[in-house]
Design a protein that fits this description.
Rossmann fold; FAD/NAD(P)-binding domain; six-stranded mixed β-sheet; six-stranded parallel β-sheet; 15 helices
Amino acid sequence: MRHIAIIGSGPAGYYTAEAAQKKFGDEVCIDIIDRLPVPFGLIRTGVAPDHQSIKAVSRRYEKTNLGDNVRFVGNVSVGSDVSVDELQGFYDAVVLATGAPNDRKLDIPGNELSGVIGSAAFVGWYNGHPDFKDLNPPLAGKSVAIIGNGNVALDVARILAKTQNEFRGSDIVAHALDALAQSKIRKITLLGRRGPHQIAMTPKELGELGHLEKARPVVDPLDFPDEGDDAMLEPGMRKSVTHLRSFYQRAGELLDKPITIDFDFFAMPVEIKGDGEVEQIVVERTELDKDMRSIGTGERYELDCQMVISCIGYRTPPIEGVPYEHGRGRFANTEGRILPGLYCVGWAKRGPSGTIGTNKPDGFGMVELIDEDIGAGDQKEGRKGLDRLMAERNVEAVTFRDWKKIEEAEIARARAGAPREKFTDIAEMIAARES
């Protein structure tokens, strides 16, 4: 019997568990460990609440967890409740699937001012992550600057611009919905260091901006290369750029919308100014060198804003005793191998890149490595050892059956038209499993 522990219950963790089930059948026992009492990681607290079709992939992960040889072990923190070394003593393979939940630091002067927020915190706030439920972002100002030209930046802009009616059917949490209803924001500026041909935005997310009730996207046609150059782009990127071009072509019909989402290309933030809180962001114009890298031109200008949201990437949090690449913000690994019996997968392995689906082949490839390394297993205790240790330390784990009770309670407390109202407090989650 092979005993595998997977740390993290997001897409990378569940795809790895699914692959192990298919590879080893009844000859494997898998524990999926998460510090939160609720599973699904990024799907629950990272995917935008108005993208329910993407969140539906959790049903696939649930099917994996309903197998007899897979167990969810929630409310257990690796590092404080149990160490990686201890887990390696119990399991033939320990797989770190912790994702990259920490914001990459915005390293410019003024980043410490009140009103400068990382996207992990802001997205976690409106998605009900317990760590960020008390964020209280400043929504009373008229302008916000969003740094980044990827889908996370688009999600943040869209959430800030939507009306209450447009959130119908989403699972945005009540505290965020109520706060956004009082928002005074009228100008949202997306700052990108490069141009329209270098964005990391997908067509679906861009297309949504053209159909918002009260907001209109604004682009400068002078930022674009000749339209014929679009033919050199790969199809998905070409569709995205076509959406951007359509925004200035349709500008006249969108003028009556009071909120603007301005795409400021070739714009590099260099400083944030304010007396204790954000008042302005200083931006330097950029141009592209022959390698398509952005370089500053020396031309600077200031934008008034009362909040800055940094969407410039994420980092995997280090774990004591596990080799780590600080420059890349991920665990040090060779094709997923960290140390004998210790592996990483997903963003913890490759950094924050790819889509949710990218984790599927990554997880299946990881199981092939594990099979190559551990064979039929090493007669370790597996979950019996973990259960004994948790009992000794009075660690109260949450099972998948417990999670289903929490989920039922969230569905029961949902507002009209919403699929659920998430608990944002861990103690409330724990209490709900006993209702």
